[in-house]
Design a protein that fits this description.
Layout lengths: L2 H5 L5 H31 L5 H4 L5 H37 L4 H16 L2 H15 L7 H27 L3 H9 L4 H16 L1 H14 L11 H12 L2 H43 L20
Helix pairs in contact: 4-5, 4-7, 4-11, 5-7, 6-7, 7-9, 7-10, 8-9, 10-12, 11-12
């Protein structure tokens, strides 16, 4: 019996016919909604060529899209670095055998993981504006980076913890057997393997950081979405501006995912190659014992 039959009963002829009818009706409903939306936008002239021609002009890219893209990449790049540092520190802290450290790190991680990132951006924007000497022009950028760091760093800390817990217990036992302390075993044996294992999830979190940087427009950070809105306000082409912005974000995320896949395969192949080499090497000072046939009468 297959797993599918165990989970639910196979549909009969009548059920399969109802499923097909439901699928057809669902497709027709979605097509009708899309047609209504597209025809409504077309009636308002959003698909006219005049709405799209500004994106063929260099000044649009020079003064709007490229500066916005640079600001988005700047905030995302800084937040990625600081999130990794935050995640490693608090992830290792949660794995500490010293319980007070583990508890404090756990409270910090759970708190910032539960708070919406936009709420943190607004809070730090207000706090930095009224209580610090940060340059007013830099306050939105700093608030965006801090909020992205605290939220995504907390998620990365959980990835670190789950990555180490996902390793076979023999890894730590082997480290302790050769004289390492638990901390040395964690840093030298478990963390490198956990980082390779959690790389796909880690890169997915980098994509989240890149997309969440657009929330900075609500506190006045002039990133790609904000520049697109300014362009649309002048040209009257809000829909084309948003579609072009979405296409740029999709391209960036695709490039990041592609690079992550290549890096993951490369690290995985290198780790497998090293493992094979280590398996073929004989331990130093140990002479292999040739297999010999048991002597006659040894079993008696």
């Amino acid at each position: 019996m297959s797993a599918q039959n165990v989970l639910f009963d196979a549909p009969g002829p009548k059920a399969r016919r109802n499923i097909r009818i439901g699928n057809v009706l669902g497709v027709l409903l979605i097509a009708a909604l899309l047609w209504t939306a597209v025809s409504g936008l077309a009636d308002k002239g959003q698909f006219d060529a005049a709405k799209w021609t500004p994106f063929l002009e260099w000044r649009t890219w020079e003064f709007f899209l490229l500066p916005g893209l640079l600001s988005t990449l700047k905030a995302a790049a800084v937040a990625v670095v600081t999130s990794i540092v935050f995640g490693l520190l608090f992830g290792i802290g949660r794995l500490s055998s010293f319980k007070p450290v583990s508890w404090v790190c756990g409270i910090v991680v759970e708190f910032f993981r539960a708070v919406p990132v936009l709420l943190m951006m607004v809070f730090f924007y207000q706090f930095l504006s009224k209580n610090t000497s940060v340059e007013p022009a830099q306050v939105p950028f700093v608030a965006v980076v801090i909020a992205l760091t605290l939220y995504n760093g907390s998620v990365i800390a959980e990835l670190v913890r789950s990555g180490v817990y996902g390793l076979p217990k023999g890894q730590r036992e082997a480290g302790l057997a050769i004289g390492l302390t638990p901390g040395q075993s964690l840093r030298s044996i478990e963390m490198p393997q956990a980082l390779v294992a959690m790389l796909p999830a880690l890169l997915s979190q980098f994509v989240v950081i890149l997309k969440d940087s657009a929330l900075g427009t609500f506190i006045g950070y002039t990133e790609l979405l904000d520049y697109a809105r300014r362009l649309a306000a002048g040209e009257g082409n809000i829909l084309p501006a948003l579609l072009i912005t979405a296409a740029i974000f999709i391209a960036l995320n695709w490039l990041l995912t592609f690079a992550a896949g290549r890096l993951s395969r490369r690290l995985g192949a290198r780790a497998g190659k090293v493992l094979k080499i280590e398996e073929t090497l004989e331990p130093e000072g140990v002479t292999p014992v040739p297999a010999t046939a048991p002597a006659k009468g040894a079993a008696n």
